[in-house]
Structures are given as C-alpha cells and as structure tokens.
Amino acid sequence: MTVFDCGDRGQRADGLGAAASAVRSGRLVVVPTDTVYGIGCDAFSATAVAGLLAAKNRGPDMPVGVLVGSWSTIDGLVLSVPHTARTLVEAFWPGDLSIVLPHAPSLNWNLGQTGGTVMLRMPLHPVAIELLREVGPMAVTSANKSGQPPAATAQEAVEQFGDLVSIYLDGGPSGDLVPSTIVDLTGDEPLVLREGAVSVAAVREALGTEVRTAR
C-alpha cells in the first residue's frame, strides 16, 4: 500500500504511473473524484471487479459503474448512443451526472447483475481524468465498505481499506458529498433513478422534454 500526494508535482506523476501499473495488473486503486473518493479497477477484468466487490463487502446484485476519461469513449461501450445521451453528455460531462445505457454485447466484462446495461460517468477531477485517459474505462464505486460513510479524504479510504488497495492517490478533501444524479436512458423516456448533484429540473431543461423520476 502506497499513498501519493497529488498536490506535489513529483508525487502526482509517480502516483499516476503507479496507479496505472496497478490497474493494468488487476489491482485496486483509490482515486479522488468530484464527488467522493472512489475505489476502482480495470473495468474489463472480471477478477479485479470481483476483488473490488469483495473489498467493499458488496455482492453482484449491486453492480459497479464505469468512469471514462472522454466523451468519445462511450461509443465503444454501449449498443448505441441515443440523442438524449449525447445531449446530457454535452450538458453535464465532465461532472456529476451518470447515464445508464445498454452495453455493447461484444464487451467481455462482468460488472455485476447489470441486466445488460452499464452506468457511465466522466468525473470532473484532473487526477481521475488523467488516470482514465492512461488506462481506459475503470469500474469505480465510492471508497467505503458497505454500510460505512464514503471517504471524503484519502486517509479515510486508507482507514477503511488498508492493504486491500495497492495505490491511494491523495487529491485533498473531496468536493461536495452529494452523489451523482443517475439517468436511465434504456426505456422510451428518460428516467431519473437518483437525484443528486444535478437536479431533475436541470436534466429536464437540457433535454427539453418531460423526465420521469423513480418512485
């Protein structure tokens, strides 16, 4: 287990290199995001994702979302990108909005019991973006064990996971502890599964259409 202070230019470069190496070898890393700290791994390694779920004491019934480092990355991950998805990506990415779409059937991944879908987000944090652009899509979820509060600092993540995680990238205290808003675009109409940092009203305004909310 190694913690890198990403506020220091040298440590940031070394930390990103170490984190990229860890992800490529199927190990877990903790990264700062624009919401809370995230714990993540290679999205295409079923073994790594299983290790991620085990570290969180979480089962496959609560699947893991995927973070990407650019808008265009989603084209290779989903069956198709509807106009509604493009609109939300352009309006809110990078940022606190996650979208759910049917994933491309050719992809060899196992993120849990997803029902053939994937939840995607591009985070607004330079350290996370740099790592994602180096290693590609990562399976990432909040850095906390199931039932515990999400980590707002790298140290809080260390206290929960210790040596279960290889590399911790310390980007300072996280921003607002409000989760991302989740919009399901798999049906005929957009459905907000969770209202978080982006309001339902903002989603509605961006799309110019009515938006349903989960009850």
List the main descriptive attributes of the protein structure presented here.
215 residues; DHBP synthase; alpha/beta; single chain; 11 strands; globular; 21% strand
Structure description:
By secondary structure, the chain is α/β, with parallel strands linked by helices. The protein has a single domain, classed as DHBP synthase (Alpha-Beta Complex). Helices cover 29% and strands 21% of the residues. An eleven-stranded mixed sheet has the order 1-8-2-3-7-4-6-5-9-10-11, with helices on both faces. A hairpin with a 6-residue loop joins strand 2 and strand 3. Helix 1 runs parallel beside helix 4. The mean pLDDT is 92. This is L-threonylcarbamoyladenylate synthase. Belongs to the SUA5 family. InterPro entries: DHBP_synth_RibB-like_a/b_dom, Sua5-like_dom, TC-AMP_synthase_SUA5.
What order do the helices and strands come in, and which of them pair?
Blueprint: E1 2-5, H1 9-24, E2 29-31, E3 38-42, H2 46-55, E4 65-67, H3 83-92, E5 97-102, E6 117-121, H4 126-135, E7 138-142, H5 154-161, E8 167-170, E9 181-184, E10 191-194, H6 200-207, E11 212-213
Parallel strand pairs: 1-8, 2-8, 4-6, 5-9, 10-11
Antiparallel strand pairs: 2-3, 3-7, 4-7, 5-6, 9-10
Helix pairs in contact: 1-4
In short:
Its EC number is 2.7.7.87. The protein has helices at residues 9-24, 46-55, 83-92, 126-135, 154-161, 200-207; strands spanning 2-5, 29-31, 38-42, 65-67, 97-102, 117-121, 138-142, 167-170, 181-184, 191-194, 212-213.
